[in-house]
């Protein structure tokens, strides 16, 4: 495992910890999109179907379990926890997330590395992950006061995607036959979606002012 | 089996 990959996984982990910290300790999910969180829970459920079939390493198994458990925990908090759910900004979290699941499933059926159940679900999860951040970005645009933890959550999530691209470039040059169009193209699309956010995040950080995204 | 070594990523 190269350093980019490890750093990517760690920023992904940090993003989840930041979000859980906000929800669990402050008992607030203000500014967090439930739609995005539900999509991530679906992404991990579809991708990690191989958890008990295909063993890679202890690291891999533990990380998969962490991402599965944390994504479903966050959804549970936002939907069921009696204090947290009251802080959910339902009025502004209006992205029609169900409508992007079906196209991703169709795409997974058409474009996959092998037409088997697990490979189709894997491709589906890759396509869905690429667009899963959209409801969150839309909600941020509509949020007047974006708190630091929410902004940091999205920043670390975006950093994870950028680092994965560096990881692929590194692997392309160091491993023979390492060509994976599906995850590369989907991964680049996913990273580009963060472009605008990164621009305004860095600007607010440089000028030491609160983050605000133009609508 | 082109995808095998990719499935080691999260």
UniProtKB/TrEMBL annotation, chain A:
GO CC term (a single one): endoplasmic reticulum membrane
Organism, as annotated: Lolium multiflorum (Italian ryegrass)
Family: Belongs to the ERD2 family.
Localization: Endoplasmic reticulum membrane
Main localization (coarse): endoplasmic reticulum
Transmembrane parts of this sequence: 55-78, 99-115, 121-140, 152-170, 182-202
Membrane topology: Multi-pass membrane protein
Name of the protein in question: ER lumen protein-retaining receptor
GO molecular function annotation: ER retention sequence binding
Keyword Repeat carried by entry: no
GO biological process: protein retention in ER lumen; protein transport; vesicle-mediated transport
Keywords: Endoplasmic reticulum, ER-Golgi transport, Membrane, Protein transport, Receptor, Transmembrane, Transmembrane helix, Transport
């Amino acid at each position: 495992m190269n350093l980019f990959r490890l750093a990517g996984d760690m920023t992904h982990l940090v993003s989840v910890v930041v979000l859980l910290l906000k929800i669990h300790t402050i008992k607030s999910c203000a500014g967090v999109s439930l739609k995005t969180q539900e999509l991530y829970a679906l992404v991990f459920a579809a991708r990690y179907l191989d958890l008990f079939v295909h063993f890679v390493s202890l690291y891999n198994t533990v990380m998969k379990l962490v991402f599965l458990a944390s994504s479903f925990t966050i959804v549970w908090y936002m939907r069921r926890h009696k204090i947290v759910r009251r802080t959910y900004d339902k009025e502004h979290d209006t992205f029609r997330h169900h409508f992007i699941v079906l196209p991703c499933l169709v795409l997974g059926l058409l474009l996959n590395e092998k037409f088997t159940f697990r490979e189709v679900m894997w491709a589906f999860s890759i396509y869905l992950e690429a667009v899963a951040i959209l409801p969150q970005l839309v909600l941020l645009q509509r949020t007047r006061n974006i708190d630091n933890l929410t902004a940091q959550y999205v920043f670390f999530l975006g950093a994870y995607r950028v680092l994965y691209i560096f990881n692929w470039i590194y692997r392309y040059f160091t491993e023979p036959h390492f060509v994976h169009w599906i995850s590369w193209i989907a991964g680049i699309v996913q990273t580009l979606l963060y472009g605008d956010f990164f621009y305004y995040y860095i600007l607010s950080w440089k000028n030491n002012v609160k983050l605000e995204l133009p609508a | 089996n082109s995808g095998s070594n990719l499935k080691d990523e999260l």
